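Figure 3 (text version): structure tokens given as input.
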């Protein structure tokens, strides 16, 4: 594979992966404006974020079998078209219930991009490069939280929150064009793959019974739910509690994203010397300790704006190390079932993320404690799951033992 082709593949797969996060991050600064216009609360608007997470979680299970049956690109066409239409619909809503419903539909569309991009990493690159490729994808994804909230703040202030959804629709259309004209089909359709409920369920069960998969997929998903708690709670914490402006919130969110994306790139360098298994364990230990310190400081009123930002930065750095390695280790045992495995991984990740998001929204408290408590709890539980689950892996699949088909 030439360097130029490698670059374009990473760029397109990265934009597919980033579509969901961009759809989450860009409208966060508009929460107060949306709440005012739709006559609800900021926490009420947060339910539209939760419905998005639920939609992505449900859609992952839908697209996994479709990707294995029809190849990667046809389901992508359907999903991206649905995303564009739902984004345009969000511009016209007059009630919070309508926004919550359309955000669910928008998520169903966007998760086709998320599932396909992960499966195509497993299709196009050898297993030994998967963690590195996931780190590179996170570099592209990292543009989202660094740019999206800042742009969203300025767009909301200048044009209103509806313009955000117009921009998202345009983005979806551009990505659809890139998929049609520049992304290769990486998996031949398998007409023998049944779409009946029982075979699909049996297929998912065969995936989840793999000890290496369930250990690292649950570890990664539980740890990652801390990020969803942060994303869901941050508008309340920064704009309501600390009283920062929409534009300032966008810059804070962008700064914190530097920790997450920066550590994921340092991870690529560490992989030259250390195994993914080692990095995941150390990262989760640090993440759990940071979460506990964060919670104790918040409960005792010891943290102001600066302290809150600093501890969030460290927490997200730890997650940036843990996430790509957990994803790579989860998918390593699979080749033929990569679509189903990636969709199941995404569904668990988004499902637990949705629970974390709903948990933050339901508290509706003028306090950062609920957000931080969920973050600390998720990191600690993920560490426990990792330590316990590793004992069940009798024949771990490492980077040197399997390779995927590579397109040259």
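Below: residues designed for each position.
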């Amino acid at each position: 594979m030439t360097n130029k082709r490698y670059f374009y593949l990473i760029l397109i797969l990265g934009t597919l992966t980033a579509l969901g996060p961009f759809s989450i991050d860009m409208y966060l600064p508009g929460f107060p404006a949306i709440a005012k216009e739709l006559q609800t609360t900021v926490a009420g608007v947060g339910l539209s974020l939760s419905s998005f997470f639920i939609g992505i979680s449900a859609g992952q299970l839908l697209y996994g079998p479709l990707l294995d049956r029809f190849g990667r690109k046809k389901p992508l066409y359907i999903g991206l078209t649905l995303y564009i239409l739902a984004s345009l619909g969000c511009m016209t809503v007059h009630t919070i219930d309508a926004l919550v419903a359309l955000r669910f539909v928008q998520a169903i569309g966007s998760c086709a991009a998320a599932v396909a991009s992960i499966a195509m990493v497993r299709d196009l690159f050898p297993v030994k490069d998967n963690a590195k490729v996931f780190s590179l994808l996170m570099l592209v994804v990292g543009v989202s939280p660094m740019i999206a909230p800042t742009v969203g703040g300025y767009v909301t202030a200048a044009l209103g929150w509806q313009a955000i959804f117009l921009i998202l629709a345009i983005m979806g259309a551009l990505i659809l064009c890139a998929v049609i004209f520049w992304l290769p089909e990486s998996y031949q359709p398998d007409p023998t793959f049944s779409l009946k409920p029982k075979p699909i369920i049996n297929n998912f069960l065969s995936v989840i019974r793999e000890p290496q998969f369930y250990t690292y997929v649950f570890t990664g998903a539980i740890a990652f739910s801390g990020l969803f708690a942060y994303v869901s709670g941050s508008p309340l914490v920064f704009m309501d509690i600390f009283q920062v402006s929409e534009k300032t919130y966008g810059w804070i969110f962008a700064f914190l994203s530097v920790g997450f994306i920066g550590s994921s790139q340092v991870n690529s360098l560490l992989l030259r010397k250390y195994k993914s298994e080692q990095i995941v364990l150390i990262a989760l230990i640090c993440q759990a300790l940071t979460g506990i310190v964060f919670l104790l400081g918040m409960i005792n009123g010891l943290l102001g704006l600066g302290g809150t930002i600093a501890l969030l930065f460290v927490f997200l750095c730890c997650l940036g190390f843990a996430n790509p390695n957990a994803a790579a280790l989860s998918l390593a045992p699979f080749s033929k079932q990569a679509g189903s495995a990636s969709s199941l991984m995404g569904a668990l990740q988004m499902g637990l993320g949705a629970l974390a998001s709903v948990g933050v929204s339901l508290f509706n408290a003028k306090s950062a404690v609920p957000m931080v408590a969920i973050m600390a709890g998720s990191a600690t539980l993920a560490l426990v799951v990792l330590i316990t689950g590793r004992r069940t892996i009798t024949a771990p699949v490492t980077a040197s033992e399997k390779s995927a088909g590579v397109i040259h």
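Residues 399-408 have pLDDT under 50 and may be disordered.
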